[in-house]
Amino acid sequence: MSEQVYDSETIKQIWQMAKVDLEASLSPAFFNTWIVPSPLTSIKIENDQNAIATISCMTGFHVTNLKSNLYSQIKTALEKYINKPLEIEFVVTDLKRSANSNNPNREAFGENLSKSNPQQQHSPSHEEINKQNYNEFKNNLIVNKSFSNDQGNRQSPTVEELFSQANINNNTFDRIKVRAQQIGLRQDYTFESFAVSSSNEMAHAAATAVANNPGTSYNPLFLYGGVGVGKTHLIHAVAHHMLKNNPEAEIIYASGEQFTNEIVRAIKSHTTLQLKNKYRKTDLLLLDDIQFIAGKNSVQEEFFHTFNALTSINSQIILTSDRPPQEISLLEDRLRSRFEAGLMIDIQQPTFELRTAILLLKAQSNKLDIPIELAQKIASQVDSARRIEGIIKKIRSAVELQNLSLDSVLIDKILQSEIKQNQQKIIKAKPQDIIKTVANHYRMKQSAVRGKRRSKELVKARHIAMYLLRNELQIPLEEIGQWFSGRDHSSVIHAVKKIEQDLILNQSIQQDVSAMKMSLIAISN
To answer: Does this model's pTM top 0.85?
Structure first.
């Protein structure tokens, strides 16, 4: 088994950047209390795949609280810069002595408390932490009179200030963040960070209505569409909105696979009653990829009764799938009818304009200033929000870790691997899919693109459609002509050559064709 260990300087740089993210999302008291005195001390990569990070804590109390309340947030912050799946180990270390020596007693002194699911731990409230652990915390918190941070040295608040009644009363925002992490919500998946266009505006409007009036507007709300269209983002946004209005709301978020595994474990361990109590008393149930339960009789049976129990008490249910209920094979008819009784919305693949907007939003949240022309260049070659997020991570890593300039040279380098992957994909779309994609891109009717009118914009769209049919599907020239009001093969040859020349000289045509190819690749997958 090969193992890569990061050097101390790299670890320091990664932790500094992660701390910037954490400081932006936490209150100053929370940040100074839990993050500053608990540094990242080790990163190991096993088999070039899985990363293990070690956080050193001064007390077992710190370990328990970080693990229970901040595990997901620290994990997300670190994964931005490591670009690998990550697990975190929290160990108790005598930080004062280990700072000055190798500390031969460290192994005996430390406790490895990390890899269990932090959501399975009891999460103490802020009031419990303040009242029950004050003495231990007071004795162990302050190693030095001040802590350093990324902006320089600043005075840490006193223990009395941190545990004052006024500070306790002002911790609602922190409690909401902790609740969101325990539920499994992504901190950046909110309505504010969701880019809206014609492909998803109905889904956004419905999700907003549900968030404002859960259990009454649309129940269930069923969102379906391909990978990276924003389904998960929207349902997380609903949960964040509900928590903001009611921090005590009972919310469950799970994937269809997680739901299935929970039922299987409950049956084996004879704990089905506890499982029923958990799922049937929630205010909001979010189930991602519900198609996963199809064909699993006991799981469908349990979900049927859970569905009925929740709707009877006006609890909100939101489901996502990669296809509509009628296309989910092996789904029980009684479940299908209940899904179809709610509001079903198809979220289309993001358009070129929407991909550009998503990229600019994510760049802004990552403190990257990407010029609009570079954002358009990326959006023309990336087909989904998920892949855009990966591109943003690569750009940020290159800028902050490698000190590279954010310019067209860097963007071309990062996109090179993406382009190679796309070139290796074979578009499996049908001819009508290509014509529909071109028409939608230019906001035209398909009949106009296929017809005989010869306005400048129609001719451009028609030529691109012919070019894609020839180059991507290798359809014979005569057959392509038949798709366009019986034009002869010489007209098709002229169209293909015209677009080939434009792709060399015209940047606008390059972007348009790339964007349409991305949409077609998404349809084909």
So the answer is: no
